[in-house]
Amino acid sequence: MVSVTNIAELETPSLLIDVDRLDANIQRMAAIAKAAGVDLRPHAKTHKTPEIGRMQLAAGSPGLTVAKLGEAEMFADKGFDNLFIAYPLWGEQKWERLCRLADRITVRVAADSLEVVEGISRTAARHGIRIRVRLEVDSGAGRTGLQSPEQVLELARRMESLPGVDLVGLMGYGGHSSAAPDIDGVKQIGFQEGRHLVGIAEMLRAKGFAVPELTVGGTPSGPYAAQIKGVTEIRPGTYVFSDRTEVVMGWSNLDQCALTVQVTVVSRPTATRAIIDGGSKTFSSDAAVRSPGFGVVRGHPDFSIVKLNEEHGMMEVPAGTHLPIGTRLQVIPNHACVCMNLHDRVAAVRGDQVEAIWQVAGRGKVQ
Amino acid sequence: MVSVTNIAELETPSLLIDVDRLDANIQRMAAIAKAAGVDLRPHAKTHKTPEIGRMQLAAGSPGLTVAKLGEAEMFADKGFDNLFIAYPLWGEQKWERLCRLADRITVRVAADSLEVVEGISRTAARHGIRIRVRLEVDSGAGRTGLQSPEQVLELARRMESLPGVDLVGLMGYGGHSSAAPDIDGVKQIGFQEGRHLVGIAEMLRAKGFAVPELTVGGTPSGPYAAQIKGVTEIRPGTYVFSDRTEVVMGWSNLDQCALTVQVTVVSRPTATRAIIDGGSKTFSSDAAVRSPGFGVVRGHPDFSIVKLNEEHGMMEVPAGTHLPIGTRLQVIPNHACVCMNLHDRVAAVRGDQVEAIWQVAGRGKVQ
After folding, report:
1. Interface of A with B in 93-132 (CB under 8 A)
2. pTM of the prediction?
3. Of A93, A309, A326, which has the smallest distance from its Cβ to B90's Cβ?
4. Which of A156, B74, B115, B131 could form an SS bridge with A325, CB 3.0 to 4.6 Å?
5. Distance (Å) of CA A140 to CA A15, A174, A176, A180, A193
6. pLDDT (tens digit, 9 = 90+) per residue, B320-337?
7. Which residues numbered 159-188 in A keep a CB inside 8 Å of some CB on B?
8. Which residues 8-27 on chain B approach chain A with CB closer than 8 angstroms?
9. Are A136 and A113 within 8 A, CB to CB?
10. Mind listing the domains of chain A with CATH numbers?
11. Which of B137, B177, B310, B359 to mutate to test the interface with A (most CBs of A within 10 A)?
12. Is B89–A266 a contact, with Cβ atoms under 8 angstroms apart?
């Protein structure tokens, strides 16, 4: 790693994380969780970076959430000892890895089918250990998750006779809040998610199941779901940086966004077109909710990144704009999580000063 | 690397390259170039993989094209000695890297501004070397490139007095062929690109500039541009795999696609919904030209991947489909180049047999 002290010395394109903004976002969500009396278990898929995970733990979180076993193994290697894998794991290799991980650290895992639970059970029994399972319910996002209270009860009953697995809670996810028209719609989805989970938990408890852990997800809806009595944990991820989508959805304003891509204008083909040296391999092609284009240029609301090729960003600027080749810009991405996942390292900065280069150690851990 | 002999032993999601299909695609484009009497300088941004680049050289290519210096440095490290960087490089650090690279191998670079050419010139003069420059013209794609023959002539004249740079040719790019309604439209754009470049070259030659190299780009349009007398080189990239977009545009059929993502069904929440263990961090969010959804499931035209989250693919299947959790599928991605760039390694397969694991050594080389 070269010794760099100012962002002007970094080559472009390069990812910058403003650590003051990062810390403010971490403290803000920690305060929300504390006020609601719930655990904050941040989803680390957003950053995949041990240094940031440690800041989240320092702010009071008991542990992190991850999507993939490979992310969990990376964080365990870096000393994290309490992880929730919010994903249904399938296959002998993955169940083996899960059990080896559970030998090292405290791990919880999601499941939404008997098939997955049986696989985990069989492998855990062979290892002579017990795995904590949270059953996932579909909160309305239309993704994974059991579809009805009856399905949850049936699977909970089947689990009673299975060795090696403990039903410790329920998991919901308000991902459909991205389709809400405004922050009030997000709030309603958060409330619904919380009530839905609590309702199923009460039914299970009436049948004799303890289900102490009720975890809900998502940056914009999670803080609202947390206000429903009975919810015990929230798992927001993107809050840590925020991004253009979270701004549109109402979580933060643009100034609070901590992650930017530093780019350079490398071509000025016409008076109204400027080409930046970042494209879909730098930002990703993810669209922002209810917004055209591919990111917001900090300090230049009149610039529009209208199209991305792989390594080119096509930017429209007003005629007469003084924007020579070589100008550096900072772009707030549409979606921070997929942007981070394209990069091996990121510069932690305070103002224009580079304080550290962090490895995105979980990047590309798709397995 | 674990020793794996059958794709069933690979964890998912995992990238598979069918080497028979890969080789057929390589041979097919090589034959097209040979028949047209032009060089084929494949754009290696598609694969970023030395093993594949070597197959392309073995099929008769004089060298490769890359988009980024970091890609060029990687290929040079792997023994490639003739590279074209089809990108305007800006900044002292990049010009220094370019000159150090030119000390090692034969390198050409694109430029479309006096600013970039002057920077390269200054640095090359300091190194006591000469850099081969191809001036980029905008063929209609609306990306980088000089906008008129007059601009090209003016920059060519300015270059005559600059040390350290040699004008060796012109570069075009028919990227707007993706907006053509059908293969006939693609063909017309290819022809136009070729004629446009040849026309500017003839004007320059009348003014005393040699411009021996006329390079045109793109998988679907390049083969047509190559048919214009005077074009000397094509730079297609995606042809090597093909993908859903290239199928829609008419380059190949689905069976010829060499790159797939092997995924597993990890959840069956409803009779018509299946969740696969690959999302936007596995496939990318790139849309396919004129097609909804996120990839084609090989052998299952009735399955639709309707939405991606980061690690989840939401698939709709006909009611009554027997598709249990644990089923493995192979998905042809919308856009091979960005999909490859998300993965550290890929399995080279023949049928169901894994012949090798290749490192995607240029992945993430955004600088």
Report:
1. 93-94, 112-113, 115-116
2. 0.97
3. A326
4. B115
5. 34, 7, 7, 12, 8
6. 999 999 999 999 999 999
7. 175
8. 11-14
9. no
10. 20-240 (3.20.20.10), 254-359 (2.40.37.20)
11. B310
12. yes
Work out the angle at residue A246's Cα, subtended by the Cα atoms of residues A241 and A248, and round it to the nearest 5 degrees: 140
The 3-state DSSP class for residue B47 equals: coil
The set of residues, in sequence order, having a beta carbon less than 8 Å from that of A213 and lying 6+ positions away, is: A108, A134, A168, A169, A170, A232, A233
ipTM of the prediction = 0.97
* B90 and A CB contact within 8 Å: yes
Touching check for A343 and chain B: CB below 8 Å? yes
DSSP letter for each residue of A335-354:
-HHHHHTT-SEEEEEETTEE
Q: What is the C-alpha separation between A122 and A163, in angstroms, rounded? A: 7
Asked if B267 and A367 come within 8 Å (Cβ–Cβ), the reply is no
d(CA A211, CA A232): 11
| A314 SS3 class | strand
CB environment A253-262: b (16+ within 10 A), e (fewer): eeebbbbbbb
Half-sphere exposure of B176 (CA within 13 A, CB side): 13
**Beta carbons of B266 and A338 less than 8 Å apart:** no
Relative to beta strand B82-85, strand A304-308 is unpaired
Helix ranges, chain A (H): 19-36, 50-58, 69-77, 92-104, 114-127, 149-160, 183-206, 222-225, 244-249, 280-283, 336-340
Tokens of A17: 């994380």
CA distance B245 to B251: 9
pLDDT tens profile A172-195: 998 899 899 999 999 999 999 999
